Structure to design on (301 residues):
């Protein structure tokens, strides 16, 4: 098997026929042996029914169905654990990741053996709202300032990489995952190539603003302890200022007390985020539960 293409799917029924046909036709034309691992992440539409029908007509299409929605990170992990290709790719099913870019990245990887990963990044986010662009920019700046794992602004999950990279990623035991950060953390030689997403053919993004903020905070917490160290420094500075204020003024004003309460709640919130992450990992619950497989070994988890 030359190439395994992992495709997380959540309510993607309108695009699946076109997506699978486009990828399959392109890979056959290029004479690349392949498998399409479609991961139904607990969709509420007829995504699974569509995938069943596609898998009946195309034996290269393999299907994993979750018992409920576990999130894209879990869907990608499940696909990685079942991938058998010499090379692996991760794509979205919304038709914004095109077969042409996939082939371009694959060729760059196979023609340059010194590289282990070819990853894409978005040159422009002009189709996003001003608020979304601003929040995305802030996330990358904060992450790269706080974390030892640096992320290229606009970096996408859309990439092609060697099976050795896959093995390194799935060997990590953590339950709560941030794959963009994990790719950087495991190392390997990576080259980034720009791409422009195709226009969305159906529906809208599944990522709400709240989900994006939660995802971003999770990414920062996964690879940096600096916010915790910052809590300690804030505590020292706050105590010092209050002590000096008390010495000079003889008492603390209500404004100072309110400010102190606000700072305290902020610090407690930061600590709570880390405690939540520790708690979730300590439970050791699986990242996902598979309800059904089509075309895959039932022994694999």
């Amino acid at each position: 098997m030359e190439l395994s293409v992992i495709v997380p799917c959540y309510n993607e029924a309108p695009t699946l026929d076109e997506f699978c046909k486009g990828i399959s036709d392109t890979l056959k034309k290029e004479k690349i042996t392949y498998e399409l691992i479609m991961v139904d992440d607990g969709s509420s539409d007829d995504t699974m029914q569509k995938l069943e029908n596609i898998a009946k007509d195309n034996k290269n299409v393999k299907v994993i169905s979750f018992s409920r929605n576990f999130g894209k990170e879990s869907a990608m992990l499940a696909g990685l654990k079942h991938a058998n290709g010499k090379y692996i790719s991760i794509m979205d099913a919304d038709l914004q990741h095109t077969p042409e870019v996939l082939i371009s990245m694959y060729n760059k990887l196979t023609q340059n053996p010194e590289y282990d990963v070819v990853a894409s990044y978005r040159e422009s986010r002009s189709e996003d709202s001003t608020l979304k662009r601003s929040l995305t920019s802030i996330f990358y700046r904060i992450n790269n300032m706080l974390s030892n794992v640096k992320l290229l602004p606009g970096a996408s999950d859309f990439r092609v990489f060697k099976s050795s990279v896959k093995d390194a990623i799935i060997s990590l035991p953590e339950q709560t995952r941030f794959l963009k950060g994990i790719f950087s953390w495991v190392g390997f030689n990576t080259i980034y190539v720009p791409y422009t997403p195709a226009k969305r053919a159906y529906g809208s993004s599944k990522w709400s603003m709240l989900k994006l903020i939660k995802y971003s905070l999770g990414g920062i917490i996964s690879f940096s302890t600096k916010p915790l160290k910052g809590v300690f420094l804030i505590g020292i500075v706050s105590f010092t200022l209050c002590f000096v204020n008390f010495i000079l003024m003889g008492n603390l004003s209500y404004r100072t007390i309110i400010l102190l309460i606000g700072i305290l709640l902020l610090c407690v919130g930061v600590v709570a985020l880390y405690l939540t992450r520790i708690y979730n990992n300590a439970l050791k619950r699986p990242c996902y539960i598979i309800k059904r497989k089509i075309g895959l070994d039932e022994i694999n988890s």
